[in-house]
């Protein structure tokens, strides 16, 4: 039977937070044992918005360490930096020539991050074509992501189907795999906004490397409501529902069963903080160990890029050929 390939990506745009962990990384760690898995740190995506070169470099390496600490095993899966594999930028151009202005204009991430701003970069607009290239280059069938990426995956599928129909069979059609719990973790201070690496304030975001004390403080200050009833109800109780989701994503329990055990917000908050602290403790220990050996992390990324380059090459050749470019 043919192997099923998995690919997913994450931007080195800041520190990893528990939204990234529950929405994506937790599934990556599982998938690596079942599928031929590729995970990429998408530095080319991170320069579509204002950034500082030194910070980008530091973030890229520390994100690699965090992913390894979270349980990605370079013996089992392929971990690499997007810009190390030039095929991504090349295929991205072919796909930009396949996607339409209308399609790209409808992307909510673009609308949220920049549409209203005149100085917004052209690459933020065409960003989904690069993301489609990341996926299609590897003929990936499964793409484990959080809920916010569903629309980008739909566009990737549309682009791939259009390319195949116009120019001949080239790409496998991928599917988003979105976890049942923790697919959209909300900011603790603004529970109607998605928890994000690039949020202005750190108060509502639990970072993977936060100390137990920081985690307890952030959870205890999480915005709830005045009803004082623990109930899973996204529309009317976003703060409490977010806490229940976090608890269940960390423990594997079911939100409505957990809700029935609590009558006070304070008790729920304490247990949410404890569950997250316990989950992150071994990961933080591994991060400490890895940070003592940055050369090893660079070696892992180099090997990952070699493997990714090899797997991506035939698809790029096929796509160039099918679209009508003359081979050198
Ligand atoms: P940025 O703030 O720079 O947009 P981000 O925190 O949204 O970053 P990404 O690098 O864009 O993170 O996303 C990496 C993965 O984490 C994606 O699969 C995305 O769907 C998932 N993800 C991001 N934020 C959340 C969240 N709040 N809840 C669940 N999953 C999330
Ligand atoms: N656009 C995604 C990051 C991303 C990605 C990918 C995810 C870039 N390339 C390929 C899955 C597959 C984001 O903003 N989270």
Summarize the main sheet. 3 strands, parallel
The hetero molecules present are: adenosine-5'-triphosphate, L-tryptophanamide
The amount of beta strand, in percent, is 5-15%
Q: Kindly report how far apart the N and C termini lie.
A: 35 Å
CATH fourth-tier homologous superfamily of the largest domain: HUPs
**Helical content band:** 40-55%
How many β strands by DSSP? 5
Total domain modules: 2
Low-confidence stretches: none
How does this structure look, described?
The chain has helices spanning 18-34, 43-46, 53-69, 87-96, 101-105, 108-113, 122-136, 150-167, 212-220, 238-251, 255-260, 265-290, 294-323, and strands at residues 5-10, 36-41, 78-81, 142-144, 175-177. With 328 residues, the chain is mainly α. It folds into two domains: 5-182 and 293-323, HUPs (Rossmann fold); 212-288, Tyrosyl-Transfer RNA Synthetase (Orthogonal Bundle). The strands form two sheets. A three-stranded parallel beta sheet has the order 1-2-3, with helices on both faces. Strand 4 (142-144), helix 8 (150-167) and strand 5 form a beta-alpha-beta unit. Helix 3 packs across helix 12 (265-290), helix 4 (87-96) packs across helix 7 and helix 9 (212-220) runs antiparallel to helix 12. The mean pLDDT is 95. Residues 10-11, 13, 19-20, 22-24, 145-146, 148-149, 183-185, 194-198 line the site of adenosine-5'-triphosphate.
